[in-house]
Amino acid sequence: MKKSLVCITAYSNKFWEINVQGTIFIVLYGKIGSKGSVNTKEFVSEELCMKRANKLIESKFKKGYWEIRKDNGRRQTSISRNY
Predict the structure, then answer these.
(1) How would you write the pLDDT of the chain (83 residues) with one tens digit per residue?
(2) Does the residue 52 lie in any domain?
(3) Tally of domains within the chain
(4) Which CDD domains match (predicted)?
(5) Is 66 exposed, middle or buried (0-12, 13-18, 19+ CB in 10 A)?
(6) For residue 80, with 0-12 CB atoms within 10 Å meaning exposed, 13-18 middle and 19 or more buried, which class applies?
(7) What pLDDT sits at residue 75?
(8) CATH code of residue 57
(9) What are the helix and strand counts (H, E) for the chain?
(10) pLDDT of 16
C-alpha cells in the first residue's frame, strides 16, 4: 500500500507519503519542493504494520492533509472509506 498526502494552507506547504511493504513501512515527509526526510519502522507482523500505518494516515487527515490522486484531483477521506 502506498499513500501520498499533502497539506497546503496559508501556513503550511507539506507532503507526507507512506509505503507499506510487508512488516516495514517507510514514511517520506517534508516541505513541498524539498528532498524531505525518511523514517523507516519495522513491526513483528504485517497486521500490526498495516494497523499502525492506517492510524498515521487517519491522523494526517485530521490535521488537514488530503490524498493526491492520479487524476490530479484531491480527496480528503477517512480510513473507513474508499480504501
Answers:
(1) 999 999 999 989 999 999 999 999 999 999 999 999 999 999 999 999 999 999 999 999 999 999 987 665 555 444 433 33
(2) yes
(3) 1
(4) WGR_MMR_like
(5) middle
(6) exposed
(7) 53
(8) 2.20.140.10
(9) 1, 6
(10) 97
* Domain that includes residue 40, residue range: 2-70
Q: CA 15 to CA 43: how far, in whole Å? A: 24
Does residue 9 sit within a domain?
yes
Where are the extended beta strands (E) located within the chain?
A: 2-8, 13-21, 24-31, 37-42, 66-68, 74-75
d(CA 59, CA 36): 19
Sheet-wide strand order for 37-42 = 37-42, 24-31, 13-21, 2-8, 66-68, 74-75
| Domain annotation covers residue 75 | no
Looking at the domain assignment, is residue 83 inside a domain? no
